[in-house]
Structure formats: C-alpha cells, structure tokens
Design brief:
By secondary structure, the chain is mostly beta strands. It has no helices and eleven strands. It has strands at residues 3-7, 10-13, 18-25, 33-39, 46-51, 57-59, 67-72, 77-82, 91-99, 104-107, 111-116.
Length: 117
C-alpha cells in the first residue's frame, strides 16, 4: 500500500524551530513532485512549499526565508525545516506527492504544528 506519514509536529513558542519529516512507502516517488501543505481551522488548505522531481523549489510568500524544503530520493523522504515560527503558522501540515502524467496524487494524514505567542 502507498503511504505518506508525517512526523515532527508539536507545540513551540514564537521564534522557535521545528523540522517536519514525511516517510513514504509503496512507491519510489522518483518522478513525483512533492510538497507540504497546511490547513488552519476554518481556512482553506494552502501550499507551503514544493520541490519538483528535478529539485526545483518554490515557496509561499508567507514562509520565504524561514522554511526550507528538501527531499532524499534514496530514502524516499521529504523534510520541511521551519525557522522563526509565528503564531500564524499554526495549522495541520500535510505531505503530498503528485505526478501529472498519468495524474496521480497521495496525501498523508497530517501533523499538528502549534505556535504560541
């Protein structure tokens, strides 16, 4: 079975750091784009950061300069290093893997990140 499992979430004070990890199984995901999304209560799920199959990264404006996305294709893992966390970063963070042709997409169950002021 294909699975994405996030870990590393928790409660942290504003200005602190966290590192999220996404462990995968059931597929090598070599030809997939991978990314992190987040959803706060009552708000739409939004893109945080993505990294393409060839290593090109893109970030939401709200996290540029603070978050870094990386992937290890040999281990089939995806990480998100978060610095200078703000209360508005509080959300459930989801790991995503997507292939365009044929269109295929997988999601993890999410990990809670809470930033206190």
């Amino acid at each position: 079975q294909v699975q994405l499992v996030e870990s590393g979430g928790g409660l942290v004070q504003a200005g602190g750091s966290l590192r999220l990890s996404c462990a995968t199984s059931g597929s090598p995901f070599v030809n997939y784009h991978m990314g992190w999304y987040r959803q706060a209560p009552g708000k739409q799920r939004e893109l945080v950061a993505v990294i393409s199959s060839d290593g090109v990264t893109n970030y939401a404006d709200s996290v540029k300069g603070r978050f870094t996305i990386s992937r290890d294709k040999a281990k089939n893992t995806l990480d998100l290093q978060m610095y200078s966390l703000k209360p508005e970063d509080t959300a459930v963070y989801y790991c995503n893997a997507r292939r365009d042709l044929p269109l295929t997409e997988y999601w993890g169950q999410g990990t809670q990140v809470t930033v206190s002021s």
